[in-house]
């Protein structure tokens, strides 16, 4: 379905199109987020696969390589201190306490095996809205401003291009609502994808990420560093436990307990904390930008205010009247065009457009 209007009037003169990108600040920030996800995936992968991702204590019966491989594949666990329990204080690392009384609740950890893949998956989502927009837009703006954004053509060719563009804008007045609506929907898609990424990260950490960072923010306000450190150690434990079970020579079940170091969680703790913070900032920014977009759709006075700085040296009353005559779709495509061409051409184009429309 081709919904972006008639561009058959912009086809004259043989000139190779330039690569015109139509990006809002929201698209740019979201693509930057995708690049950050890829970079952090490489960083975590480097920590995982350059050296030992997990180091466990060995026993006489079990060699180090065997226990490391087993615990990496079958997960490790930490224990929670019960309210009625006590530790003997020989191990002070959160999650590895030795309890003398009280019930013990074990929490298993396997997510560290999927760090790199999850980050790559999240990065791919960041390019979806821009990809959809580029597929649906089909180079319309590129054809409209063909040559007007270049100094490598003669003045006569540039004037011909400007005349074609002017003719298109007059002939297709009030036909660009769908064009603007699709762009707005892609921006709304960014907002939903940010929410989906946050929810996915929360599910990846067994629905605990929201609550942990909420508690950490609350703790920052209170100022208790010990509590904050303990909470991060619960979510990203650096020292965990592993139980290895096997049958001995006579068939009896033998159980070996081992402590395991997870160096990757030192990196993961910083990576996912930074990503969580950035996604929340991006969510707030996207809400602000989309609110401003909705206000521009609803009120022509805001559209006038948005374009007037572009025409400080032009007749203000005429330009104000022109913008008020246009609907949001016309305003949107005109704004995109004016962002891509020279300021002197902008003034000439808008002046000629206003004269032509007011004569009708």
Automatic annotation (TrEMBL):
BP terms from Gene Ontology: monoatomic ion transmembrane transport; phototransduction
Pfam families assigned: Innexin
Record GO cellular component, one term: gap junction
Keywords, comma-separated and alphabetical: Cell junction, Cell membrane, Gap junction, Ion channel, Ion transport, Membrane, Transmembrane, Transmembrane helix, Transport
Domain of life: Eukaryota
Membrane topology, record value: Multi-pass membrane protein
Listed InterPro entries: Innexin
Transmembrane segments: 29-49, 111-133, 178-196, 275-302
UniProt-annotated location(s): Cell junction, Gap junction; Cell membrane
Keyword Isomerase: no
GO MF terms, alphabetically ordered: gap junction channel activity
Family statement drawn from the similarity comment of this UniProt entry: Belongs to the pannexin family.
Role noted for this protein: Structural component of the gap junctions.
Identification of the protein by name: Innexin
């Amino acid at each position: 379905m081709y919904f972006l209007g008639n561009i058959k009037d912009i086809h004259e003169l043989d000139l190779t199109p330039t690569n015109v990108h139509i990006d809002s600040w929201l698209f740019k920030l979201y693509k930057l987020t995708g690049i950050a996800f890829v970079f952090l995936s490489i960083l975590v992968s480097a920590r995982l696969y350059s050296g030992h991702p997990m180091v466990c204590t060995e026993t006489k019966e079990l060699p180090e390589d065997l226990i490391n491989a087993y615990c990496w594949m079958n997960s490790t666990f930490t224990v929670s201190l019960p309210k009625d329990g006590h530790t003997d204080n020989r191990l002070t690392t959160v999650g590895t306490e030795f309890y003398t009384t009280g019930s013990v609740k074990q929490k298993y950890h396997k997510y560290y095996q999927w760090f790199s893949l999850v980050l790559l998956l999240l990065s791919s989502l960041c390019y979806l809205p821009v990809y959809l927009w580029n597929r649906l837009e089909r180079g319309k703006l590129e054809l409209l401003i063909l040559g007007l954004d270049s100094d490598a053509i003669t003045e006569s060719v540039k004037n011909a291009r400007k005349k074609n563009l002017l003719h298109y804008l007059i002939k297709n007045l009030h036909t660009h609502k769908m064009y603007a609506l699709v762009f707005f929907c892609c921006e709304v898609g960014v907002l939903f994808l940010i929410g989906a990424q946050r929810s996915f990260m929360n599910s990846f950490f067994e629905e605990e990420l929201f609550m942990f960072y909420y508690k950490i923010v609350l703790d920052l306000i209170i100022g208790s560093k010990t509590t904050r450190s303990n909470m991060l150690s619960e979510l990203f434990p650096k020292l965990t436990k592993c139980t290895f079970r096997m049958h001995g020579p006579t068939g009896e079940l033998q159980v070996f307990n081992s402590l395991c170091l997870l160096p990757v969680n030192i990196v993961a703790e910083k990576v996912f904390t930074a990503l969580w913070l950035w996604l929340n900032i991006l969510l707030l920014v996207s809400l602000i930008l989309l609110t401003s977009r909705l206000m521009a759709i609803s009120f022509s006075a805001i559209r006038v205010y948005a374009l007037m700085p572009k025409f400080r040296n032009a007749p203000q009353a005429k330009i104000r009247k022109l913008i008020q005559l246009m609907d949001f779709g016309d305003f949107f495509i005109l704004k995109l065009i004016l962002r891509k061409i020279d300021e002197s051409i902008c003034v000439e184009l808008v002046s000629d457009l206003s004269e032509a429309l007011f004569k009708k």
